[in-house]
TrEMBL record:
<dbReference type="InterPro" id="IPR011994">
    <property type="entry name" value="Cytidylate_kinase_dom"/>
</dbReference>
<keyword id="KW-0963">Cytoplasm</keyword>
<dbReference type="GO" id="GO:0036430">
    <property type="term" value="F:CMP kinase activity"/>
</dbReference>
<dbReference type="InterPro" id="IPR003136">
    <property type="entry name" value="Cytidylate_kin"/>
</dbReference>
<dbReference type="GO" id="GO:0005524">
    <property type="term" value="F:ATP binding"/>
</dbReference>
<keyword id="KW-0808">Transferase</keyword>
<keyword id="KW-0547">Nucleotide-binding</keyword>
<feature type="binding site">
    <location>
        <begin position="12"/>
        <end position="20"/>
    </location>
    <ligand>
        <name>ATP</name>
    </ligand>
</feature>
<dbReference type="GO" id="GO:0036431">
    <property type="term" value="F:dCMP kinase activity"/>
</dbReference>
<dbReference type="InterPro" id="IPR027417">
    <property type="entry name" value="P-loop_NTPase"/>
</dbReference>
<dbReference type="GO" id="GO:0006220">
    <property type="term" value="P:pyrimidine nucleotide metabolic process"/>
</dbReference>
<keyword id="KW-0067">ATP-binding</keyword>
<protein>
    <recommendedName>
        <fullName>Cytidylate kinase</fullName>
        <ecNumber>2.7.4.25</ecNumber>
    </recommendedName>
</protein>
<comment type="similarity">
    <text>Belongs to the cytidylate kinase family. Type 1 subfamily.</text>
</comment>
<dbReference type="Pfam" id="PF02224">
    <property type="entry name" value="Cytidylate_kin"/>
</dbReference>
<dbReference type="GO" id="GO:0005737">
    <property type="term" value="C:cytoplasm"/>
</dbReference>
<feature type="domain" description="Cytidylate kinase">
    <location>
        <begin position="8"/>
        <end position="202"/>
    </location>
</feature>
């Protein structure tokens, strides 16, 4: 059982497997989990539902501030359309600023938490004792995303999915505020050639090693 206040920060590009790993690590260590990408997807969803453009800064900030962590329709939010829309909204500095306190509040729970996203280790929880940067080749990530979308009954064009993945990588890494990058003290985990079980075992080893170094086990 981790000691009070343990934070595990997991970052990485789209479809790298970070969300799956974060959920399993949270269950293993008895910690609450937050997929911070859902915050941006929910913000984008609110804008689309209201017929507002994704670059309407004022409306986007209002939508972000009105979110509640307990009422997400994940099935809807995880569509390809909202993934692309979320990447646009996430590039708005004012939206990211509006969501910082919500994310830090979640991380500040007494028992700690597992958060995954793109700026957890660098911006949201730079003090986290465990930081993992999960990555994989663009081709492998596109393949995973295509399979995920197909499993939901969506029509899938692999070439289009790959183009989306590369576009999101460029947007996420090139934005002016909180760009996607690995924290200096994070451990890289490349899942290109790993199945979920192998990736999970590797992630657990990283956590245990970091906790041992921090004197938390």
């Amino acid at each position: 059982m981790p000691e009070r206040g343990l934070i595990i920060a997991i970052d990485g590009p789209a479809a790298s497997g970070k969300g799956t790993l974060a959920r399993r690590l949270a269950a293993n260590f008895g910690l609450p989990h937050l997929d911070t990408g859902l915050l941006y997807r929910a913000t984008a969803c609110a804008l689309l539902d209201e017929g507002r453009p994704l670059d309407d800064i004022r409306a986007a900030v209002e939508a972000a501030r009105g979110l509640a962590l307990c009422d997400f329709d994940e099935a809807r939010l995880r569509t390809r359309e909202l993934g692309e829309a979320a990447s646009v909204v996430a590039a708005i500095p004012q939206v990211r600023a509006a969501l910082i306190d919500m994310q830090r509040g979640f991380a500040g729970r007494p028992q700690g938490a597992v958060l995954d996203g793109r700026d957890i280790g660098t911006v949201i929880c730079p003090q986290a004792p465990v930081k993992i940067f999960v990555t994989a080749s663009a081709e492998k990530r596109a393949q995973r995303r295509a399979l995920e979308l197909a499993s939901r009954g969506e029509k899938v064009d692999y070439a289009a999915v790959l183009a989306d993945v590369r576009k999101r990588d460029e947007r996420d890494s090139g934005r002016s505020q909180a760009p996607l990058k690995m924290a200096e003290d994070a451990v890289a985990l490349d899942t290109t050639d790993l199945d979920i079980e192998a990736a999970y075992r590797a992630a657990c080893e990283i956590v245990e090693e970091r906790l041992a170094l921090a004197g938390k086990v």
